[in-house]
């Protein structure tokens, strides 16, 4: 499992860990049932606080991405396809909101933005 932390930027470290592990689970790089490093081991590898790592794992568990068994560790949870779809829809909406904002900043009309989207879809 590869995790790259950036000290620059606004994203907290626990969120970077959460996002990268979540993305690896969604992409299939981490398979259901696969064990994750212990909180202490990951904290040591990343040279960060155990508290920070625990928060990331807590967020992953709350999101349904991992399950933790006392005395055994944390494992990748079975994929909930509805959850995966909702996450992708939410991410797509964020990108589209950014596209609308950029189009407005450029003075692009709604029709021009829609035509650009149609062209991109057709090229796909």
Give a short summary of the structure:
The protein is mainly alpha-helical.
Distinct helical segment count? 5
Mean pLDDT: 92
Shape: elongated
In the predicted model, the low-confidence regions spanning at least 5 consecutive residues are none
Order of helices and strands: HHHEEHH
Q: What distance separates the N and C termini?
A: 31 Å
Side-by-side strand order of the widest sheet: 1-2
Summarize the biggest pleated sheet. 2 strands, antiparallel
- Helix % is 55-70%
Topology, number of strands = 2
Q: Kindly estimate the percentage of residues that lie in beta strands according to DSSP.
A: 5-15%
- Helix/strand-derived class? mainly alpha
Task: Describe this structure as you would to a colleague.
- The chain is mainly alpha-helical and 124 residues long.
- The chain is 61% helix and 6% strand.
- The protein contains 5 helices and 2 strands; from the N terminus they run αααββαα.
- It has a two-stranded antiparallel sheet.
- Helix 2 (39-46) packs across helix 3 (50-62).
- The protein is elongated, with a radius of gyration of 18 Å.
- The model has no long low-confidence stretch (mean pLDDT 92).
């Amino acid at each position: 499992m590869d995790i790259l932390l950036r000290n620059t930027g606004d994203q907290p470290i626990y969120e970077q860990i959460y996002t990268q592990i979540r993305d690896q689970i969604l992409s299939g790089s981490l398979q259901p049932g696969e064990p994750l490093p212990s909180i202490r081991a990951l904290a040591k590898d990343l040279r960060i606080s155990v508290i920070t790592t625990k928060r990331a794992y807590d967020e992953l568990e709350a999101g349904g991405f991992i399950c933790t068994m006392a005395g055994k560790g944390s494992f990748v949870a079975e994929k909930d396809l509805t959850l995966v779809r909702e996450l992708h829809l939410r991410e797509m909406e964020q990108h589209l909101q950014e596209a609308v904002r950029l189009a407005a900043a450029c003075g692009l009309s709604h029709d021009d933005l829609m035509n650009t989207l149609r062209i991109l879809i057709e090229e796909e």
